[in-house]
Amino acid sequence: MIQTDMLPGIDVPTVSDVETGSGFLQSLKGLGFEDAMSTIANAIVQFSFRLCIAILVFYIGKFIIRKLYNFVFGIMVNRKVDASLTTFVLSLVRMVLYFILIITVIGIIGIETSSFLALFASAGVAIGMALSGTLQNFAGGVLILLLKPYKVGDYIEAQGFAGTVKEVQIFSTIITTPDNKSIIIPNGGLSTGSINNYSKEEYRRVDWKIGLSYGTDFAAAKTVILQMLNEDNRVVKTNIDDDKAFRRELKKEEELKKEEELKKLDSLKQDNNPSQAGDNKPGWWKRFKVRREEKQRILHDKLLEQTAIKEGLPTKQNGAPPFVELGELADSSINITIRVWTHSSNYWPLFFEMNRRFYTELPQHGFSFPFPQMDVHLVNE
């Protein structure tokens, strides 16, 4: 250590001056060679010690951030939070935590964080003005998560692209096209533009137009087409409410079959190991959750029914049976219009299969598809 009483008239730098670097070069001017080297050595030791602590804190902070990230991810997955909100929140949490970690490490090294934060604030204003479009995308991402025009897994069409939403990030949305191409669309345009969400509604209407030859018995063709439609369980026969009940019964039957299979497996396990008997019985909490979900489903269906009545959707009040009528008398054919309602998940399978059946089965009943034709009349002069 340097004793100040042994160096009269010389201003010895304080520890804070050496650590922060303020006036360090000026403080060395009044010192001798040995004192200057001792001061430099002390400063290097102090800086190295702080640097080692900063590096240690950085890696510990990275470990803690990773654990917090996984913890938040686990909570959101277990709570069945929407996947789009999960990806957005996780990316935002990671950015905020790393920013705090970097500020902390800079403070440990000895750099004044207040001036550093002020520099960040002023730079943030300049960057914000330069990146106004990026901030608009961020605000658009927040609006998308709040208003939920779409979510992860929905098939949408927007900004000239169509595909399944794969991920909703802070500044953009990633969709995957049917031919497996990833399209990145900025959130700003999505939040203010038009979006066609094919997965938003539970039921959709499927339309066909079939051209048959002139002279066809329309009543007979209508009977055959209705028979084909009524044979398919994916077609709504009377109304959407009854179809929902029918699908719930099918789902219950599938669940009962799975439970029976599980019971058979449990009985085999119990025969092999009797001590495990009764371990797989559902508890009171599981039964309470099932009853609560059933009540919520009933309430949700009632609200949907009221909304559907207001919007004119086919319910018990106005029905949704298959529609088959003569739509157009074209130049070479009579065009039959066919409209049915089905669950959104069955839209394309039903559309393509019925196209195939119309093409293969209608000729078997004596109906023919016409070719474009023209009648030419010759006049003898």
Give a verbal description of the structure.
By secondary structure, the protein is an alpha+beta fold. 56% of the residues lie in helices and 14% in strands. It is built from 11 helices and 8 strands. The protein has helices spanning 15-20, 24-29, 33-78, 83-109, 113-130, 132-147, 187-192, 218-230, 240-272, 284-311, 347-361, and strands at 155-158, 161-168, 172-176, 182-186, 195-197, 203-212, 323-329, 334-343. The protein has a 5-stranded antiparallel β-sheet with strand order 4-3-2-1-5. It has a 3-stranded antiparallel β-sheet with strand order 6-8-7, with helices on one face. A hairpin with a 2-residue loop joins strand 1 (155-158) and strand 2 (161-168). Helix 3 (33-78) runs antiparallel to helix 4 and helix 5 (113-130) crosses helix 6 (132-147). The N and C termini lie far apart (132 Å).
State the order of secondary-structure elements, H for helix, E for strand.
HHHHHHEEEEHEEHHHEEH
* Strand line-up of the largest beta sheet: 4-3-2-1-5
Instruction: Output the CATH topology of the largest domain.
Output: Helix Hairpins
* Average pLDDT level: 76
Keywords:
381 residues; alpha+beta; Helix Hairpins; three-stranded antiparallel sheet; 11 helices; elongated; disordered N terminus
Topology:
Elements: H1 15-20, H2 24-29, H3 33-78, H4 83-109, H5 113-130, H6 132-147, E1 155-158, E2 161-168, E3 172-176, E4 182-186, H7 187-192, E5 195-197, E6 203-212, H8 218-230, H9 240-272, H10 284-311, E7 323-329, E8 334-343, H11 347-361
Antiparallel strand pairs: 1-2, 1-5, 2-3, 3-4, 6-8, 7-8
